[in-house]
Amino acid sequence: MTTFIILLGPPGSGKGTQAERLVGELGVPHISSGDLFRAMKEQDTPLAREIQAIMARGELVPDSATLRVVEARLQEDDARAGAILDGFPRTVPQAEALDGLLAELGGRLAAALLLNITEDEVVTRISGRRVCPACERVYHVVYNPPAAAEVCDGCSGALLQRSDDEPRVVCERYRQYLSKTAPLIEHYRDAGLLVEIDAMRQIEAITPDLVAAVRSRVDAH
Ligand code: AMP
Questions:
Q1: Range 136-142 average pLDDT
Q2: Which of 24, 140, 156, 206 has the lowest tally of Cβ within 10 angstroms?
Q3: Is 173 an annotated catalytic residue?
Q4: Residue 51 alpha carbon, nearest atom of ligand 1
């Protein structure tokens, strides 16, 4: 039995934060396509440079490049029993390719969990988001603050705002979400895999609902 799940929702809906919390509960790794792309920042290749430029504009990386990166990650040993996919798939062709990939890997999708929040809340959350560039932990100045202001609890690094969290880029990311990713909601509803979660609540209140939704789906098979 495998536990592959997708976290769906607009930028700032808490996908990364919840994914980290689900790792311990579900025992499968968190795979974030955005993190995989950010990790390519150090690579000095034309493709890596092009990907950083696309991200800086808030646009989507082409499906072919995205699929190559995610496929390689899913083939690693720790993902054999499943994975929590965060930020992937983001387009219908990516979702279709994922089905093929999972079939090759002998897995299947247990659920697509949609984190529902309003556009106003997206703006509030993203403007307060801070990340540790050293260990990649994510915080929010109000909702999930570090013990000492602007300092990472894990490694004491100075926290920063993600460059694509600046308001102009967030607007474009939200636009891309509505036009290219939101169609996945119907896609997964039609497939009987969609579970909608009220993500306007506190971080700690949301995780148990996600865990319960995943467990009921995994147990049913
Ligand atoms: P995230 O960390 O999920 O907000 O992703 C940051 C950025 O990485 C996005 O704004 C896109 O430019 C790019 N990205 C991440 N995941 C994908 C994907 N599945 N398809 C295309 N672009 C992606």
A1: 92
A2: 24
A3: yes
A4: 12
